[in-house]
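User: Hi! I'm a student and our assignment asks us to look at how structure tokens line up with a sequence. Could you show me two examples?

Assistant: Happy to help. In each example below, the sequence comes first and the structure tokens follow. Example one:
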Amino acid sequence: MRHYNHPRRASLLTQNFLRIGYWAWQGYLDFDRGIVAISSEVDLLDDSDYREGILEPSLNFRYIPHVQLSIYLEEWLVPRQSIDPILAAVVNYQPETELILAVESGVNLDICWCQNLKISPPNCSQSPILQYPV
């Protein structure tokens, strides 16, 4: 049974939001619509190994363009009836104000459609504290 740690999920998103927004906007500019995928060698949402004060695992970020998204989801064994709504969301999200995020967590894939953002993806991309290569 999987034990979700909501503080850990919130921490993952808040501590990395500028970086997530950066990848979302740069990916959109380079490839059009798609999703930002975050992965790690550890399950990012399982709290069984979570301890206060322990450093979070290193994260890997990448952008999956819409044209490659179906293959990506099939590799994660997402059922066809679930793939179609995800593809529709990617076609319909507003890249200037929203983003779609995939968290690869252990053997699970969690997809989030982030709306009503306090900082837009274009603004994340312009942040002076970001110095990540594209």
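Example two works the same way, sequence first and then tokens:
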Amino acid sequence: MMMQKISRARIAFTATVFTLLPGLAFAQDGSANDYKGWVAIAAGIAIGLSALGGGFGQGRAAAAALEGIARNPSASDKIFTPMIVGLALIESLVIYGLVIAFLLQGKI
């Protein structure tokens, strides 16, 4: 019997559905404060995704800079300063995510 290959996208979709679907079983009837749970989830997602993206971006930037310095050590001064500026700009986007999370938390 041949087994089919399951793609990563299908696995991710299935995991997402089975993670979010049980919440519907505990759903209540509509009320004025119904949105607060979603705001809390949005705040968590905002900081989580911004930290994840910032971490990946900083890792790739630092790896590229270190590879450039390893290939040409005399160019380390020319590579180091733009790398620090780039890392600061990446980190500023993470801080924006944190600010958005705090603003959303204020609405709970």
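Here is something you could point out in your write-up. The helical segments are 8-20, 36-71, 76-105.
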